[in-house]
Amino acid sequence: MSESINLIAMNVGNTRTQMGRSVSGELTDVTSLSNEDHAGIIDQVVTWWSYLPDTSPRAVLLASVNDPIADKLASTLTDQLSEAPYRIGRDLPIPIAEELDPETLTGVDRLLNAAAAWNTAKQACVVVDAGTCITIDFVDGAGTFHGGAITPGATMQLDAMHRGSDALPELDFMRPDDDPFGRSTAQAMLHGVYHGIRGSVRQLVELYALRYGAYPMVIATGGDAEMLFADDELIDRIVPNLTLVGITTTARQVLSADGGDD
Questions:
Q1: 236 belongs to the catalytic site
Q2: What is the pLDDT of residues 45-93, one digit of tens each?
Q3: Which CATH superfamily is domain 6-91 in?
Q4: How far is it, in rounded angstroms, from Cα 70 to Cα 12?
Q5: Where are the chain's structural domains?
């Protein structure tokens, strides 16, 4: 099995499920739905499945950092499609080497991002995933994942400030205004979160480069990546669908190696 496999790739996150079709190796029709919209997610996958050409092998691949939601989706899809999805990390290993403490349980999204980034860049790189949490991970020049850092995402930080105080308002995350002085409470909060995230990413990338002895490529992904990093010269590429790319990379490399094309 190679790029001829037709896939539906699903990435179940903490709050949303991202999905896309990969036909003849091209990822298309990427969409994202709330995890609360179980019926909507199922309807989308079933519709895509009916459109996938049946002249080549086809499969649904499901990655998850939210197993209760993923388990429900997998069960319903098995009933609807009469075929169980492949579970990334359970049924299929992620094709990337790791150098981590033995007891470490790394989220499959981080490993999939690393595998996709390495497969694309073929050089040392840092992957910044700006979602519910923000991860800043390092892959060396030999394609080995070394882990990295996890910090609260923008919405989580704003929510924590609101819930942890009597005076700070509830805010949606957006880019702050161009005045560096937050002249309102809302702008002060937005400036703190926005520049705090960008500053922590820059500091960690510099630490990784110093330890590694060379400056890595920096790739950003995740729902807040464009808002946070679109104008940041530190970021070499923004790839919104990097985790889904990692799922298709896993399918091509692992399923073809196993000969699992039925």
A1: no
A2: 999 999 887 767 889 999 999 999 999 999 999 999 999 999 998 999 9
A3: ATPase, nucleotide binding domain (3.30.420.40)
A4: 6
A5: 6-91, 97-242
Q: How far apart are CA 228 and CA 12, in angstroms?
A: 22
pLDDT tens for each residue of 175-194: 999 999 999 999 999 999 99
Alpha helices in the chain (DSSP H): 38-51, 67-81, 108-121, 154-163, 185-212, 225-229, 242-250, 256-258
Q: Of 2-16, 20-34, 220-234, 238-252, where does mean pLDDT reach its minimum?
A: 2-16
| The two structure tokens encoding residue 34 | 């709330």
**pTM of the prediction?**
0.89
Distance of alpha carbon 85 from alpha carbon 77, whole angstroms: 7
Tokens standing for residue 214: 């060379």
- Which of 256, 252, 262, 257 has its CA nearest to residue 116? 252
Name the 3-class secondary structure at 20: strand
pLDDT value, residue 2: 46
Query: According to the 3-state scheme, what is the secondary structure of 123-179?
Result: CCEEEEEECCEEEEEEECCCCEEEEEEEEECHHHHHHHHHHCCCCCCCCCCCCCCCC
| Cα–Cα distance, 110 to 96 (Å, whole number) | 11
| 97-242 CATH | 3.30.420.40
Could you say which of 79, 109, 129, 261 is catalytic?
A: 109
